[in-house]
What we know:
Blueprint: E1 2-7, H1 11-22, E2 27-33, H2 40-46, E3 51-53, H3 56-62, E4 68-71, H4 78-87, E5 91-94, H5 104-115, E6 119-121, H6 129-139, E7 146-154, H7 172-175, H8 179-195, E8 201-207, E9 219-225, E10 230-236, E11 243-250, E12 254-258, E13 261-266, E14 269-274, H9 288-300, H10 307-327, E15 333-334
Parallel strand pairs: 1-2, 1-4, 2-3, 4-5, 5-6, 7-10
Antiparallel strand pairs: 7-11, 8-9, 8-15, 9-10, 11-12, 12-13, 13-14
Helix pairs in contact: 4-5, 8-10
Amino acid sequence: MRKGALLGVGNVAVNGHLPGWRARDDVTLVAAADGRTDGRAAFLEAFPRARWYGSPEELLAAETHLAFADIATPPAAHAPLIRQALSAGLDVLCEKPLVLDAAEIPELARLASGSGRALVPVHNWKHAPALAKLTELVASGSIGEVRRCRWETLRTKPAVAAGDEGNWRVDPAQSGGGILMDHGWHALYMVAGWLGTAPRSVRASLTTRKHRAFAIEDTAALTLDYPSATAEIFLTWAADERSNRVLIEGTRGQVSLDGGRVRLAAGAIRRELPLPSIAEGSHHPEWFGGVIDDFLSEVARPERRGAGLAEAAFCADMMVRAAESHRRGGAGVASA
């Protein structure tokens, strides 16, 4: 039984991670750490024999026989905790965004490689059945070569956070940004899977339409220009509805997603598949099992390591270029 620790026990950990770990019989959590106690009861209910610590530093100093760490703190703490966990000889699974500064990823990748450990981001939306079906249809060639992708995430407000200190998602010091860093990270790694990680340029507009008390944007519009395709991403916390829509057009047809309904139209083929909506819920515990599988696969097979890090590096780089494009009034910024 591989033993691990949970670092950060807020809403995402309690409602998204714990059910996934609890369902496994090949791994278990034996400790958790958080300076707040909001998640303590839920954690100890799921893992009654586990130990609770008031800080990650205290936990890592006391728990000397761990195999892995699952980091689910607010984003500003990710990079320091990844360093500490890797230095302690642990494999690391970490919530998105992996880091707030794109320049930190090469350093962390070298640290993981040097220690012989896996470093894997939580890119859980890949495991949503509806999005996985889109990926399957694109990869199978059902719509030919992709020429255009349109992604929309509509929300009425940011997701809530645990604790009484306020919502870290709207505090740029903790979150690193607004909806682009939050929902945009998911959109970017999904689009990268369909179109690749090498757009020629990025254009972006970051605005506030509704939540003016926040020091971050509540709406983001991005265009990624590829050599033979375009990806458009629109994200907002200022909508009147909660929904997700995707349209992928190819040389032989198109596939679309509205909530959980997947439609394929390619020549004479017309298919409609009702699947669970990706707009329902914020923590998606039903997707976390696939995240654990990805993580354990990279742990067990070093030759598979790096796929998640490459996705995270792409997302982090796009954040930098989108911010620069916005500063330039939406002008295109060349990709690396």
